[in-house]
Amino acid sequence: MSTVDKMLIKGIRSFDPENKTVITFFRPLTLIVGPNGAGKTTIIECLKLSCTGELPPNARSGHSFIHDPKVAGETETKGQIKLRFKTAAGKDVVCIRSFQLTQKASKMEYKAIESVLQTINPHNGEKVCLSYRCADMDKEIPALMGVSKAILENVIFVHQDEANWPLQDPSTLKKKFDDIFSATRYTKALEVIKKLHKEQAQEIKTYRLKLENLQTLKDAAYKLRESIAQDQEKTENLKCQLQELEGSIKDVDDKIHYAEKTLKDLRKLQDQISTKTAQRSTLFREQQKQYAALAEENEDTDEELMEWKTKFEERIGILQTKISKLEREMNDTDTKSSFLKQTINDSIWEISKLQTEAEAHVSLKNERDLSIKNLFARHNLGSLPKSPFSEEVATNLTNRVKSRALDLENDLQDKKKTNDSKLKTAWDCYMNANDRWKNTEAQKQAKLEIKNGIVKRIEEKENERDSLELQISNVNLSQIDERERKLRIEVERKTNQLSEREFESNIRQKQSELYSIEQKIKVVNREKDVMDADSEDRVKLSFKKAELENLKKKHRKIVDDQKDKIKRVLKGRVPPDKDLLKEVTQALRSVASEYDNMDANSREHGKEVDKLQMKMEEIKTNLYKHKRDLESKKRHVETKLQSLDPQCPGIHSYPKMLESFKENRDYKISKYKSEEGIQNTLDYYEKEARTKHACPCCDRRFAAEEEDEFVNKHRSRVANTSKALKALAEESAIADTNYKQLDDLRVVYEEYVKLNKETIPDAENELQQINEELDRQSQELDDTLAVLAQVQSDKEVVEALKHPIETADRYFQEISALQKQVEDLEYKLDFRGQGVRTMEEIHSELKSLQRTKDNLHNELEKLREEQRYAENDLSSFQIRWHTLREEKVKAANSLQDAKRVEDELERLTEEKAKADLDEKELAEALGPLSKERDKLLADHNELKVRLNRDYEELVEQKRIFQQEAESLFKMTSKIREYLDLKKEDRLKELQEKKSLSESELKSCDARKQEILADLNKSKDLMRNQDNLKRNIEDNLNYRKTKAEVDELGREIETLEESILKVGGVSATESELQKLSQERERLLSELNRYQGTMSVYQSNISKNKIDLKQSQYKDIDKRYFDQLIQLKTTEMANKDLDRYYNALDKALMRFHSMKMEEINKIIRELWQQTYRGQDIDYISIHSDSEGAGTRSYSYKVCRLYTQSLIPSKAE
């Protein structure tokens, strides 16, 4: 049970903010009596505010609750309430709440500034303060008291203005009773349940609509699947029929192929017969032509004719060899003759060139001699021998000219050096004079600057002197000396007084006395502590033993409660208390490690499953793309094939069609080339006939009209052949175009075959493998997750066990520490001795020592104060004395500075006069130096002009001589070059060579005439042998052609016999036509079946695409999930309804029971206190306004002779 002990009030309503008022509450009853305005209600308000934090009514947000600052004459007042109470556990707690009310310019501001709870630590007896926010404090105090806040507000500390709350309206009354009964959370729970019931009912409606929609989609998906299954079944039946038709078509194709092959062979035989017949006709005509062209038919055998031909060939070979030899010799002679003619021409050209050069050489020598004479005459180089000059004389004279040119060059260099030295000397004289003038000018400027600096310094010193004289005029040195003397005397007097009082020694004496008194107090306090220790230690020992037993109970309770879990975690073993936490922690670590490993494995398996799913989706996508490409390629090829051959059965007939089209193209092209060859032959025959006027086959001469007849006949044949050739060209072009179109489809067909036979089957196999691998990985993942769930449950058990085990271990550690403390206290109490003095004597001695200490401390402070006053007085006089001395020193320094400034002014005046004199002397010396410098500069310039003119004249002479000498040197070099090349000897050699070549050319011409005569003779003999040889060759050719005609006749007969054996062409063609009609019938039926099947397949693909839409995806699972969600939500809503009704009934029953208890207490109290006879008792009556509702009608009634009358009814 919680009780209130004391309460301190300060600054609340009429309670003074400066004085503390303490109210002590007694048990079992405390009566508070006082006049109006004394503060009785304020005490109840403070109790209520301390416990609940609620301000009383009409407090105006605290403004009228805190003491008014205007009444206190302050701008701010602070209020505080301290309440000490015992908690429900019997623990002392002090609640402190502080407030502040501040007067602003236009309003007052209320603020709660502190909320503190004070408790005493049972272990060390120290106070512990905890600061709280106001809201936390308002919850903490009712919890410590064990009473709800509603009871504190409305029952225990109810305000007198709110004491009639039972007479308020039913809704307010119900709220207060709910708060008092702590039923608010249940009523809120009912409201939440009702709201949740309503929301879930709305969700159920939504779920039903979703389920109906999913049912519709499910039915549509079912119909689509049924349609797909039916179409697939029909497609399979059609496929079987198509396979049968394809087999029949294949048989017919084989028969057609055999018939076509047979027909092709027959036509080939016929073509061979036609070709050989044409060849035989051509050869026969050629035979007739050869027979007609024979000059004489020889009766000899072929061997004899060949022998004759061989001998003729030998003789002709000898003649040809001789002719070739003579021709070669003739060619050699011609070559040699042409070479000799070229040599003679070259020699003539070179001779003329050398003769021209010899004439130029003679003229150049004459010109050289003349040039030498002119040079020697013009430049006086000496005497000359008679001309013409020899080469040696000319060389010597040229060397003399060269030496003369070198002499002129040396003279020019010497002249230049002389001129430079003269100019340098004149310039040095000018520069020396100029340097002297510049030095004098610089000295003058320096003197002028020095003079200006001296003038400035004189002005500064005069200003400094004036300021010092002004300072000295304001200073009275005699007065300063007198004041300084007086202050020195006063300082000496104060120093003597301070030394006579001996403050330091007195203070040290008092400090030593104070220290000895403090030591005595410490000794007495230790003695007192020893006397108090025994009782305090026994109290501590009892507290610690009680706490030790409490901790042991808590520890044992935790261990017993968790014993089954410990055995489960540690496999049936319960370790000692000290090792319990360690082993549980190890078990948790091992389980956590196992869980982490299993979790990592599950994540790895999950990643593998995800990878396989992604790979499977990728393969499905690729497979779908491949199939789509396959269909597109198939449609493309079949479209092309149908356009080329409407009877084409499909893409599988592409190779046969390609081969047949190729054979057709080759046949057309070969036929075209054959006809073209015949036309070319006929054109050639016509041309030869017109050119030679003879038969082109046998070279027989035509008669008068025979040539025209032959040409007309060939022209008619050529015209017929041209028409056939044009038709064959068109047919071959069409066949070639068709074949190229088919050949262009080769790549697409090969890709189709590769997709159909390799890519798609490989992808399907890989998809099947990945499906199997995915199933295996999914199974492993499920197994891992099952094990992981088991490990996780074990981990959760260990984690749930860890916290109580840590608490138990903490209790065990505290038990061990307390056990040691208890043992130490027991040992201490058993062996401690007792004192000889009483506690009263010790207290009296302590008081006397404390008084002595206080007196000594006061005396010490007084001495220190007097010492500080005397030292401050002395220091003030010393400061004044030092200040005056500094002033005197400054005045003396000012006098010295004034004297120094006067001396410097005199010195500067003298320096200024000296500078004026030096400046004048330098100005007078500058005039002559300037004139001398100008004269030397003019002399230098005049000398430079004259020397340059002389030097230019020498240069011009040297240039003229140099030009004439170089011209001479060039002529000399050309003459020497001509001589060095020995061109005169070369001219003689060429003239001799020319004469020799002319004689050889004459002999070559004579030999050519001889060879030409022999060559003509041999050619005449060769021509006669050719006519005989041609007659023999014509006989041999005639016999050969006749043999070929006979051979072709025999071959034609053999081919005709082969055709008769195979059968006629017409019979084979009729059989082939019948087979083609049968094949067309089968193909039309096949196309009809394929069209029907494509319709079914398009329906299947369309339905499958519809099924792949998002609305049909996982429709069965979605329908099942939605159905489960609807049913579970309906069941949960029904459970909520049942729980709501049960909680409502229980809450009403709880209200009824509580109201019965309250009315019973009210009746007993009324009968004990009220002595009237008119009212038996009063009661609070609560009626529910309807069955199953939570609306109550509360009213206070009076009982008059067993009849209830509401209080408000009267």
Automatic annotation (TrEMBL):
Places the protein is found: Chromosome; Nucleus
Keyword terms of this UniProt record: Chromosome, Coiled coil, Metal-binding, Nucleus, Zinc
Domain Rad50/SbcC-type AAA as annotated: residue spans: 6-250
Any Pfam family matching the protein: AAA_23
Coiled-coil regions listed in the entry: 197-336, 451-565, 602-629, 711-1007, 1038-1092
InterPro entries: P-loop_NTPase, Rad50/SbcC_AAA
Cofactor needs: Zn(2+)
Domain of life of the source: Eukaryota
Keyword Iron in annotation: no
Reactions this protein catalyses: ATP + H2O = ADP + phosphate + H(+)
Residue spans crossing the bilayer: none
Signal peptide: none
Entry's family note: Belongs to the SMC family. RAD50 subfamily.
PANTHER family from the UniProt entry: DNA REPAIR PROTEIN RAD50, RAD50
Protein name per UniProt: DNA repair protein rad50
Organism, as annotated: Stylosanthes scabra
